[in-house]
Structures are given as C-alpha cells and as structure tokens.
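Weekly sync, protein design subgroup
Attendees: M.S., D.O., the rotation student, P.L. (late)

Item 1: inverse folding check
M.S. brought a backbone from last month's batch and wanted to see whether the design step gives back something sensible before we order anything. D.O. pointed out we never logged the input encoding, so this time it goes straight into the notes. Structure tokens as presented (299 positions):
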C-alpha cells in the first residue's frame, strides 16, 4: 500500500503539515508522501489564471485514483472547506455536523467512494481541553461563520460553554448559522454581533479567531483593533491561524498589546493532523512524533 497524502489550500497558507505527516509515515514504516497543492479561491482568479477550485480538485483526486494499490488522503484548508463538500460521496457524522470538510479519503476500503470528514472539531476540542484543564469557563466568543468557526462553536458546546457570541461579517450567513445552532443547542445562549456594529463584551473568557485574518501579512481591519481594545482583561485569545516563521499573526499582536494570554493554531494543527492520519491509516500517531517534526520544521 502506498499513501498518497496532501493538502489542498490557498497559496498563502504555508502549511507545516508535510513535516508532520511525513514523520508519521516514517514512524510506522509506511511508504508514501505528503504534498502541497496550492489553489487560489475562485474569486481571485481571472479566466486566464489558474483553473477554478472545482476543476483543480477533481484533477488531483483523479490523479490519485489512477495510481494502483494507493490510498489517497487529502486535507483541505481555508477557504475551500465548504466547497469541498461537493466532492464527497459520503460524509462522516462530524462532517455532517459542521457542514464542512477538511479531510478526504479514497481507497479500496471505501470501494472508490470519496469519504468526507472533519478533523477540525477534534483538533480544536482537544487543544482547548489541554489549554484549560478541568471545568471550562462559561462565556466564549468566536470570530467568523465559516467551516472552522462552526467547528469551534460545536467544540465549545461540547466542552460545556453556555454563552457563545459569534462575530460575523456576512449578515445572511450569520442568520443561517444562528438558526442552525439555536435548534441544535437550545440550552446555549447565542449572541450574534456584526463586526461593523460592535458592542463591548462584558464577559468573555475565551476568544477564538476562526477567520482568515492574519493568514497574510496585512494589518488587521479597523473593527478588529477596536474590538480587542475593549475585551475584558481576563480573556484568553485562541488564534486558529499561525505563521510558519513563528511571528505573531495580526490578531495575536493585538492580543499581546492588550496583555492577554494566548495560544496560536499550531497546537490545533498537531491535534487535527493526528486525527487525519488516523482517519486515513487507522493508526494513531503519538503526539510527540508530530510535535517534534513541527519543532524541527520551525528551526
């Protein structure tokens, strides 16, 4: 068996995933490789530019399926996690719950079917549990309404958070998200906040960034700077975004300026990578194997 693994993502998302998954393959003595497939979002392309996301992903999957005796496992990162739903023949319970996938699997075991999965949920939940051992605080805020944000909200409810504010940029999407979560978790109090009409949060023990803000080197939007300035001093900031070079993201810098406690997305990256590798291979890689690979990659 040969493991054809890879990451489909935005060119600016310089992922550390190859180092971790190659280390996992080596740890178990498995033949395979993990490659990066940079695909820009559709709205950034012209007719003469790179092909649309859909066509590019189809070609990657077709290329993998053409290899005999091969298991194909693909991660999907922002901003393609919801688009990738259309490529799955079957969804796991986690993928259905989040309505977004960051993991695809095709093998003889699946009889050629493409299985869609979401490991962000497990990766985020474990990371928060490790950051806050014991009983969780009760009030949290999530920035964003996309696939990663949905995983964060679901993870927080599973950990016992009863008050969750969601900061949105798209009102239509926010309405859909609120309706979905209110029906799914009627005992949780959800508060929707328009980023252009921010109100100070009186109680926020955990703030999670589940947007793409900070993925590039652009300064944070004005609303974010104003929002961080008014956060309670006890807020812990959890940024799903990270920089490969180790520098602080734009929002992480705002948190540091406010003297907030912080954690970036590398810990979640490790936990979701362990879950992805297990989904593809049915093997659980020790966390220290992937963690050591990440440390070496960061120099």
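Designed sequence read out in the meeting:
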């Amino acid at each position: 068996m040969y493991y054809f693994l890879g990451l489909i993502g935005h060119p600016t998302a310089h992922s550390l995933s190859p180092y971790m998954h190659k280390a996992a393959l080596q740890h178990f003595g498995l033949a395979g490789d993990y490659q990066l497939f940079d695909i820009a979002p559709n709205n950034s392309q012209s007719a003469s530019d790179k092909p649309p996301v859909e066509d590019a992903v189809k070609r990657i999957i077709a290329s993998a399926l053409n290899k005999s005796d091969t298991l194909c496992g693909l991660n999907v990162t922002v901003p393609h996690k919801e688009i990738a739903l259309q490529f799955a023949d079957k969804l796991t319970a986690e993928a259905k719950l989040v309505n977004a996938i960051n993991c695809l699997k095709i093998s003889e075991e699946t009889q050629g079917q493409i299985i869609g999965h979401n490991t962000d949920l497990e990766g985020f939940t474990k990371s928060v549990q490790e950051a806050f051992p014991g009983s969780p605080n009760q009030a949290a805020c999530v920035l964003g309404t996309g696939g990663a944000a949905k995983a964060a909200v679901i993870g927080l409810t599973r950990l016992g958070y009863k008050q969750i504010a969601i900061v949105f940029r798209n009102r239509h999407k926010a309405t859909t998200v609120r309706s979905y979560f209110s029906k799914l978790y009627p005992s949780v109090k959800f508060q929707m906040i328009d980023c252009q009409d921010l109100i100070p949060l009186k109680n926020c023990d955990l703030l999670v960034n589940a947007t793409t803000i900070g993925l590039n080197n652009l300064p944070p939007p004005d609303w974010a700077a104003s929002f961080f300035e008014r956060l309670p001093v006890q807020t812990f900031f959890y940024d799903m975004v990270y920089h490969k070079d180790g520098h602080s993201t734009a929002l992480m810098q705002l948190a540091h300026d406010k003297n907030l406690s912080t954690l970036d997305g590398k810990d979640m990256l490790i936990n979701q990578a362990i879950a992805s590798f297990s989904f593809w291979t049915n093997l659980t890689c020790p966390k220290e194997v992937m963690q050591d690979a990440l440390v070496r990659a960061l120099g």
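Discussion: Confidence is low (pLDDT under 50) at residues 44-50. The chain has two domains: 2-118+269-298, 121-264.
Action: P.L. to compare against the previous round before Friday.
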